[in-house]
Amino acid sequence: MLIFTLYFFIVVVAIQLAYYLIVFGKFAFAKAHKSNPKKISISVIVCAKNEDENVAKYIPLLAEQDYPDFEIILIDDASSDNTLDIFEEFEKQYSNVKLVKVKNNEAFWGNKKYALTLGIKASKKDYLLFTDADCYPTSKDWITTMSSQFTMHKTIVLGYGAYEKVAKSFLNKIIRFETLLTAVQYFSWAKIGQPYMGIGRNLAYKKEEFFNVNGFISHIQVRSGDDDLFINQVAKSKNTALCYLPESFTYSQPKTKYKDWFTQKRRHVSTANFYKPFDKIKLSVFYASQLLFLLLATILLAFQYQWIIVLSLVGFRYSFTWITLGYSAGKLKEKDVMYWFPIIEIVLIFTQLNVFITNIFSKPVYWK
């Protein structure tokens, strides 16, 4: 019986090798891309619900962007705090700020996609750049750098949304490693020509892409996914570009409690259930191979069966994953999380398993 377990383990390591070196290597070992500034009009869109503290800090950073032609669309999604009041002050203060007030709609109550749709329709520019209310750009050249990747054919730009570093916090390292791994996946598959998702913290596309598919209508019943489900629907190899220059990053404050992060993960995983079939398969096979690698290695080593071969395969697997993720972490300014890589990976794998099981028995909480 153990001989078959060993053979299965070898297959799992081979699958991991294919993912990390062939797929993820497309991003990890790619040459640095360049920024070619464009003179196009941009609408920066921010949707907020009860985010008064964040918008007070971060909207001025958007208004101070060094870009010749842009507007900021601020969407207040029926906030019950001071968000609307702050937005109204910004509209008075900045000539390029436009406020969209969303009242609760019985058919779309609490649906962020409804609020975003109103904001997109109110925008006057042909190109849209999205970020969240709790995010801020890393430089005054954020708009310039993200928009530089647009061409006549590239009408979607996938960016990187990072999380702030928190000193002496292991949870923070887990969150940032998970964010790094997610980015490596969607950047790599896009480079291969199979884009499947983007993140609303840093995402841009031409407005016509939105109206060509009637916006979010095909997945309006899904409470989340205004970013990844939309990109999963419209992104193709010919229309999708990447932007991972440091000047293009956005940052946001990470969760500080495991329970809050776990709840956030539940929402993300539940949304992935609505991806295209092949996208679900390639993601499922990857995560299954990660879990099986740990379980099979543990079983074989516990019985000391061909332990030299098993340990050699374990060492080989950690070598190529560390190299691939290390190069990727360098590109995305996340090198410090790699020092804890093996431990973080184990915690993350079993957290994802817990998320999957929990979502079977209860529904996650969405935008309120």
TrEMBL record:
GO MF terms listed in the record are: glycosyltransferase activity
Q: Any stretches that span the bilayer, and where are they?
A: 6-29, 283-301, 307-327, 339-361
UniProt entry keywords in alphabetical sequence: Glycosyltransferase, Membrane, Transferase, Transmembrane, Transmembrane helix
Q: Which superkingdom, per the lineage?
A: Bacteria
- Please name the Gene3D superfamilies in this protein's record: Spore Coat Polysaccharide Biosynthesis Protein SpsA, Chain A (3.90.550.10)
Instruction: Give the residues annotated as coiled coil.
Output: none
Pfam families of this UniProt entry?
Glyco_trans_2_3, Glycos_transf_2
Instruction: Give a yes or no for keyword Transmembrane in this entry.
Output: yes
Carries keyword Ubl conjugation? no
> Glycosyltransferase 2-like domain: which residues?
43-159, 166-325
Family listed: Belongs to the glycosyltransferase 2 family.
The record ties this protein, via PANTHER family, to: POLY-BETA-1,6-N-ACETYL-D-GLUCOSAMINE SYNTHASE
Q: What's the protein here called?
A: Glycosyltransferase, catalytic subunit of cellulose synthase and poly-beta-1,6-N-acetylglucosamine synthase
Recorded source organism is Flavobacterium fluvii
User: Lineage of the source organism?
Assistant: Bacteria, Pseudomonadati, Bacteroidota, Flavobacteriia, Flavobacteriales
